LruC domain-containing protein (Rhodocytophaga aerolata), 449 residues
Amino acid sequence: MNIITQKLKLPILGLLLTFGMFSCQALEERIRPKKEVELNIPETFDFATIQNVTIDLSSKDDKGNAVSIPYIGIYDKDPSMGGTLLYVTGTDTQGIGTDAYSFPSHIKNVYLETNIPGVSNVETPIVNERISQSFIIPEGTKTGRLSATEADPYYGFDNTLKGYLLYEDNWPYKGDFDLNDLAVKYNYNFKAEGLPQGRTRKLELIFDVVAIGGQFDNGFSIKITKAKNQRALTLDDIANIELTVNGTPISNYKNSSAVSQEDGEGVLFDIFSPTNLAADLQGTDKNKQTNCNSLPTAKLEITFNDDAVDKGLGISNLRLGNHPYDPFIYVNGNKGREVHLVNRTRTQRANNLYPYTIPDNSNDNIGTPVYKVVRNASTEQNMPFAILVPAVKTSGNTPLGFKFLIPQERSAIYQNDVYPSFATWASSGGGSNPNWYYEPKNNTVIPCK
Ligand SMILES: [Ca+2]
């Protein structure tokens, strides 16, 4: 490098820095919501709409001998009263059923159905994120599953988990909280493929973009994170990984830099690149919401090895129990600038790459990968930058699955003309109106897929 180049570099750097600061401030000014709503959200509220639940079931006859129940349906309430089937599990030939699933946070009790004559169906509470129930089967009752001494082709059930992930991409600067900068519908399929209850052979994660209402070209990734009291997933647990984006398989994905292990924490997968989620028009909002069928879709398929440590087949659902794992965006192609759901951990890749100079309520210590709370406390609002909405309708007689309506551009999710119950829910720390997402004002939300 010669002297002249060196002398030129400083002014150019200064110009770049000035422009960078100006553009951030301008952006922050421009995206202020039209109307401010007074929110008094408790500092500790985590904005969780789902709870990860361990399912702990047992079955025996009235003499204390183990009896298997091949089918136990978990409903939000008695199906004859309009209850919705949420999950299917069972107990094995040892009379044990250990499993994991996630349920909407507002569900406090579940209804367990066995379909076995002489065995009453039962309503039981979810206590400390656990469903515990023992069944007594009258001796000699046929339960439909062979005994342990016979050739027993007992098997698990495929289950699905659906929801929406909504992101605000201006973090750590204040956003307008329309939470539509990227909105993704997810559908997780847990495929047993002949394995016993509580174990999974193949995990299929489908991500269907339903809105791009932001100004940045963001990327979308997911880390399969360590579940509570479980060993973290490693690449050794995985036999095969395939990613398909818009119907096209990504060649050699498994061995590419898009897949990486974070020791003791899990495995990270890049799903949509910033090119996949690119802006329509430079400098203006790329709002494709009215043409959502053209938005990208991706399918990640993870096939598990038989677990070498617990010597089990496939992988235990308990190890996969931390739904929906850690799906996040990175902003405008910057892998140091990640936006997560509240209380998710920043990845090792992002650590120290983004300057945390803006007042923000993230529990973030530079030098550690801990990124506990992602929200903005610099002003009057204490809001998350990402939120999840479960796509299970559990009230009334509406069948499983519902369509969440995305807030329109500049319509903050907490405004009274968008989701009027959101403010009450958040201000009460989740105690009131926990299913606020069923009740939009339809002139400010967009039907999509
Ligand atoms: Ca937006």
Q: What stands out?
A: Residues 7 and 101 are 61 Å apart (CA to CA).
